[in-house]
Amino acid sequence: MESAALKRAPSLPMVIQFGLIGLLLTLAALAWALTDERMGGMDAGPGTDPGGLGFYVTVWVVMMAAMMFPSIAPMVVMHARIQRSRSEEGRAVPAGVTPLFVAGYLVTWTLTGLAFYALLEAGRALSIDALSWDRAGPYVAGGVIVAAAIYQLTPLKDACLRRCRSPLMFLLNAWRPGRAGAFRMGIEHGGWCVGCCWALMAALFALGVMSIGWMAFIAALIAIEKLLPWKAVANRGIALLLVVLGLGVALAPAEVPGLTLPGSPEAMRAMEAMGMEGGESMGGESEGSGSMGGESMGSGSETGDSMGSSSMQGGDAGMNP
Fold this sequence. Notes:
This protein is an all-alpha fold. The chain has one domain (2-253). It contains twelve helices and no strands. Helix 6 (155-165) packs across helix 8 (178-207) and helix 8 (178-207) crosses helix 9. The longest helix has 36 residues, at 53-88. The chain starts with a helix and ends in a 10-residue tail after the last helix.
């Protein structure tokens, strides 16, 4: 039977196993470097404007590769093991099935990123002044992080995490042969991973989605709960850490290390780097809030070329005839 063959899947030769893991880690490192280059200086704190849709999707996909590739290495290795076993048994194994598995995984996370983007844009369209940072903003951001902590302890989280931590169990239940089957399995595994990590990603938006530091923090939490052998300890430890962090953001945001406060000089510089003219990044209104994408992000645009010089001329420069 197919399930019996999957259970007997032999170990990969060490050179192939380490090659796969090394390739995933190398791609993750390249994605981190590209993310740092693209997002450097853009952290305006909680509720940072994600920019135009094209820019956001590009950055999001690279972010997912950076944050998730180390955590899915065991699943990818197990998928390759099973494919090798099938090949040794004389079954047809099309080329490129494992990359298609990873591609399907990224497709699921891309769709999830679009859902986050739609929610953010809908919130901005409502323009609720009570949610601005100098009003309820810290409590909203802190509440999202505490909600992520509570989700850590739910049965749904546990069910999703079990499948992410058990590659063989997942593949035994979800196996599909061929290229289309590999792509479908990648999408399905991505779905379980989203179920496991969506609240942590929401916490990232609450902390500052354009922050490399907070990205690394959330990526480390994901790796810890998926890869460490002590699932219960890791899960509950992360929940406790998130509760402390959420309360800190809500009650004493200025004391949270690494948190950029909306309206601070750091946030204003980030907004200038994104082509925005002012305002708050969470709940506030800004004249240029929609100008992050498109030409304002291009290095050769007139706006980008003139931003530094015009800001140095003083407030009266624009009033000269």
